[in-house]
């Protein structure tokens, strides 16, 4: 009996083991189906390229290699900021070598422009980060202020080049910097009022605003840009030829800025809606506009203006009197009597009477055996102005008049 019961117990144990082994693959498949699903969700949260750098949200646009626009904008903005910083350091280091007042007056607005350009490149990184309330406030506050700073510097430079081209004189550098800062302050007040009215008073989120409202808030910036364009165009009408190159580069930078603003405003207001990409391409559009404007100002205005300021003044070359291809130098055609005092002029005018009396006395007591008439005496010949050969060469071959201090050669 005991052996029969033991046999039944062993058979029941093997039957239960078989049922467990039969259900184990199903349980294993269920676990495997859950585990890969958990890993896939974690991998989707970190884009390709960010796992190597170790960046996650909200900085995924800085390293996402699938959405390559963020990496490209980041690289171009970093290169532009570095170039603007190096150019500013070069200007500060060579400031003592700029001795001409006309060139030195343009250094202040140029340094202020480079500061605004670096601000544009830095602000582009704010559009590569996922937005929140504080970041949206920074975007809306600094966008118009930085553009107003750059365009007011262009307007100040246009006023300076216009004065130089027409009158040959430049306003003081402090006046130009003060003008640029004063015009920028107006845009700062406009941006602050817009934020106070929409965010604090109406209670709207800082990240939710209409694109048309954003464009209207930048209307003052467009006025500054058009004013700078007009000033640069007037600078080309001056009579001073040496400043026309500065005016031409300033006009090119203003024209490129106008075309850029027309392009990004049209795409931001109408292009994104037409392509049904208003929520996706809004931030890339603004980031690309910032970087493009920074490089336009850097290439078409900052670098040529810095080269003009740092270029040494041409040294005046001495005329070569033995070069027959050059025109002979002309001496002053005005009378030497203008520089002679009145007392000395009366003395010089009375000298011919003394010479005549002296020569008449010599003729009366001289040798009268000569049949050819009286010969001028030595004192009279010595009082006649006889120019040297070098004096005639310097006067272009013509016989010059006697200088006002000439009183005759003394033979004894």
TrEMBL record:
Highest taxon in the source lineage: Eukaryota
Name this protein carries in UniProt: G-protein coupled receptors family 3 profile domain-containing protein
Domain annotation G-protein coupled receptors family 3 profile: ranges: 112-164
Membrane topology recorded in Swiss-Prot or TrEMBL: Multi-pass membrane protein
GO CC annotation: extracellular exosome; plasma membrane; receptor complex
Pfam annotation, one family: 7tm_3
Sequence segments annotated as region (Disordered): 358-382
Membrane-spanning intervals of the chain: 20-39, 67-95, 107-129, 141-161, 173-194, 214-236, 248-270, 285-303
GO molecular function annotation: G protein-coupled receptor activity; protein kinase activator activity; protein kinase binding
Keywords: Membrane, Transmembrane, Transmembrane helix
Subcellular location, record wording: Membrane
Source species taxonomy: Eukaryota, Metazoa, Chordata, Craniata, Vertebrata
Organism this protein belongs to: Albula goreensis
Segments forming a coiled coil: none
PANTHER family xref list: G PROTEIN COUPLED RECEPTOR, CLASS C, GROUP 5, G-PROTEIN COUPLED RECEPTOR FAMILY C GROUP 5 MEMBER B
Main location: membrane
Family membership noted in the UniProt record: Belongs to the G-protein coupled receptor 3 family.
């Amino acid at each position: 009996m005991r052996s029969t019961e033991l046999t039944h117990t062993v058979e029941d144990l093997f039957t239960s083991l078989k049922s467990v082994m039969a259900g184990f693959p199903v349980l294993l498949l269920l676990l495997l189906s859950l585990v890969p699903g958990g890993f896939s969700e974690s991998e989707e949260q970190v884009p390709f390229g960010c796992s190597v750098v170790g960046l996650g949200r909200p900085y995924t646009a800085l390293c996402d290699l699938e959405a390559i626009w963020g990496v490209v904008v980041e690289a171009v903005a970093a290169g532009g900021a570095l170039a603007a910083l190096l150019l500013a350091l070069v200007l500060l280091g060579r400031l003592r070598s700029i001795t001409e007042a006309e060139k030195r007056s343009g250094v202040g607005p140029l340094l202020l422009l480079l500061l605004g350009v670096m601000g544009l490149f830095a602000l582009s990184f704010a559009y590569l980060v996922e937005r929140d309330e504080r970041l949206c406030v920074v975007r809306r506050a600094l966008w118009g202020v930085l553009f107003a700073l750059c365009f007011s510097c262009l307007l100040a430079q246009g006023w300076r080049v216009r004065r130089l081209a027409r009158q040959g004189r430049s306003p003081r550098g402090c006046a130009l910097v003060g003008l640029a800062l004063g015009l920028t302050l107006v845009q700062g007040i406009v941006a602050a009022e817009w934020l106070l009215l929409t965010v604090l008073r109406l209670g709207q989120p800082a990240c939710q605003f209409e694109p048309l409202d954003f464009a209207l808030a930048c209307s003052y910036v467009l006025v500054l840009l058009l004013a700078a364009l007009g000033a640069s165009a007037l600078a080309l009408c001056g009579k001073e030829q040496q400043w026309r190159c500065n005016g031409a580069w300033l006009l090119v930078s203003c024209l490129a800025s106008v075309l850029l603003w027309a392009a990004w405003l049209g795409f931001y207001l109408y292009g994104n809606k037409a392509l049904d990409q208003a929520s996706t391409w809004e931030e890339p559009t603004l980031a690309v506009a910032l970087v493009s404007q920074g490089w336009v100002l850097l290439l078409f205005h900052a670098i040529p203006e810095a080269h003009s300021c740092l270029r040494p003044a041409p040294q005046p070359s001495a005329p070569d009197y033995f070069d027959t291809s050059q025109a002979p130098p002309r001496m002053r055609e005005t009378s030497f009597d203008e520089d002679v005092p009145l007392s000395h002029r009366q003395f010089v005018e009375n000298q011919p009477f003394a010479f005549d009396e002296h020569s008449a006395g010599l003729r009366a007591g001289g040798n009268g055996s000569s049949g050819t008439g009286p010969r001028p005496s030595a004192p009279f010949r010595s009082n006649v102005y006889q120019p040297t050969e070098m004096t005639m060469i310097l006067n272009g071959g013509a016989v010059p008049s006697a200088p006002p201090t000439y009183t005759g050669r003394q033979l004894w």
